[in-house]
């Protein structure tokens, strides 16, 4: 199945940093930190060419060295349809770069001694105690098919962190039984933004636990919903919503003031980039398929991309435990 490659209205380049981080650095001339102003100028020329050719809508680039901010420029559009110029403190959708943030949040619980990497997921989410696995096999005519067998062992916290638990993405899984089960369970919407669902945390856990795994736990790496499950583990262990836990343990201590699962500051919502899709004829607005940035805690979070960061990341609404 061909996937449309989606870009944010702002491409992410070279260095991810929050506004607070950028403002904490003292500006410096490139030559003062061992860089070349002449060579750095080539960065802008390349991105301007890509913008003019319709390859990307816009970009923010920041480069720091030796504790000094030597290069900080923005190019193109924050909203191409409205011709809103890209701001250096623009807020981007982080999409699946939310996954490492959720993983770090989980590792703080490991550091605390609250959970262990070897814990079976079912220790915290009993729904995952007995799982089935969809395995390839030949049918009576020798044609490729899939059948169900019991999981040889339970997936662990470590499996969730490294994508070896057996969970997949319905949009891209090549396992027919898994794709069919995820479709019936509404674990994804084929005609909507990637990894979109209306399920609440308890519903998600119940439905994915009843769906077969794509591989025996611990045997195969496959990119999928593992970190979404991990986010729910964090909620169950901490007794807090994932967004609140991450705000307390990650974002606030690190002064990541523009990172979260919803646009908490009304004054900053205008800095949120719109999304575009690459098509054969160029960039096209994704307004018909992509959801607006969440402005309320009533919306939910997802591991495929509910975190937003400025100036190099973003946000989309998802389940309240999942953060792509």
Account of the protein in words:
The protein is an alpha+beta fold and 324 residues long. The protein has two domains: 6-96 and 260-309, no CATH class; 99-244, 3-Layer(aba) Sandwich (Beta-lactamase). It is 26% helix and 18% strand. The protein contains eight helices and twelve strands. The protein has helices spanning 19-24, 37-52, 98-112, 157-162, 176-184, 201-210, 226-238, 242-251; strands at residues 6-8, 11-13, 26-27, 58-65, 68-79, 84-85, 92-93, 132-138, 144-150, 275-279, 282-285, 308-309. Strands 2, 3, 4, 5 and 6 form a five-stranded mixed β-sheet that branches. A three-stranded antiparallel β-sheet has the order 1-10-11, with no helix packed on it. A two-stranded antiparallel sheet has the order 7-12. β10 and β11 form a beta hairpin. α3 (98-112) packs across α7 (226-238) and α3 (98-112) crosses α8 (242-251). It is globular. The chain starts with 5 loop residues before the first strand and ends in a 15-residue tail after the last strand. Mean pLDDT is 80; it is low at 1-21, 287-300 and 310-324.
What is the domain tally? 2
Name the poorly predicted regions: 1-21, 287-300, 310-324
Percent of sequence in beta strands: 15-25%
First-to-last CA distance: 20 Å
By CATH reckoning, the class of the largest domain would read Alpha Beta
Helix content: 25-40%
> How many helices in DSSP terms?
8
Mean of residue pLDDT values: 80
* Spatial shape: globular
CATH architecture group name of the largest domain: 3-Layer(aba) Sandwich
The CATH H-level superfamily of the largest domain is: DD-peptidase/beta-lactamase superfamily
User: Structural class from helices and strands?
Assistant: alpha+beta
- Kindly identify the CATH topology of the largest domain: Beta-lactamase
N-to-C series of helices and strands:
EEHEHEEEEHEEHHHHHEEE
- Topology, number of strands: 12
- What kind of sheet is the major sheet? 5 strands, mixed
Task: Evaluate the radius of gyration.
Answer: 21 Å
């Amino acid at each position: 199945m061909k996937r449309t490659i989606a870009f944010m209205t702002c491409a992410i380049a070279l260095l991810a940093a929050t506004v607070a981080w950028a403002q904490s650095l003292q500006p410096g001339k490139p030559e003062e930190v061992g860089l070349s102003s002449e060579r750095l100028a080539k960065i802008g020329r390349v991105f301007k060419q890509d913008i003019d050719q319709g390859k990307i809508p816009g970009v923010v680039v920041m480069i720091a060295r030796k504790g000094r901010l030597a290069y900080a420029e923005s190019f193109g559009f924050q909203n191409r349809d409205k011709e809103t110029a890209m701001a250096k403190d623009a807020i981007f959708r982080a999409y699946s770069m939310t996954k490492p943030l959720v993983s770090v949040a989980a590792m703080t619980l490991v550091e605390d001694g609250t959970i262990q990497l070897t814990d079976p997921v079912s220790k915290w989410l009993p729904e995952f105690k007995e799982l089935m696995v969809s395995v390839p096999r030949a049918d009576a005519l020798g044609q490729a098919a899939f059948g169900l067998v019991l999981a040889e062992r339970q997936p662990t916290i470590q499996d969730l962190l490294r994508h070896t638990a057996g969970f997949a993405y319905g949009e891209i899984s090549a396992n027919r039984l898994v794709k069919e089960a995820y479709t019936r369970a509404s674990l994804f919407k084929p005609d909507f933004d990637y990894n979109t669902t209306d399920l609440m945390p308890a519903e998600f856990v119940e439905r994915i636990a009843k769906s077969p795994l794509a591989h025996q736990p611990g045997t195969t790496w496959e990119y999928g919903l593992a970190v979404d499950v991990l986010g729910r583990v964090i909620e169950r262990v901490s007794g807090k919503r994932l967004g609140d836990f991450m705000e307390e343990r990650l974002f606030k201590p690190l002064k990541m003031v523009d990172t979260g699962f919803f646009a908490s500051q009304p004054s900053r919502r205008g800095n949120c980039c719109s999304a575009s899709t690459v098509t054969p004829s160029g960039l096209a607005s994704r307004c018909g398929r992509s959801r607006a940035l969440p402005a309320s805690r009533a919306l939910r979070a997802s591991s495929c991309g509910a975190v937003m960061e400025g100036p190099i990341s973003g946000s989309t609404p998802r389940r309240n435990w999942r953060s792509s």
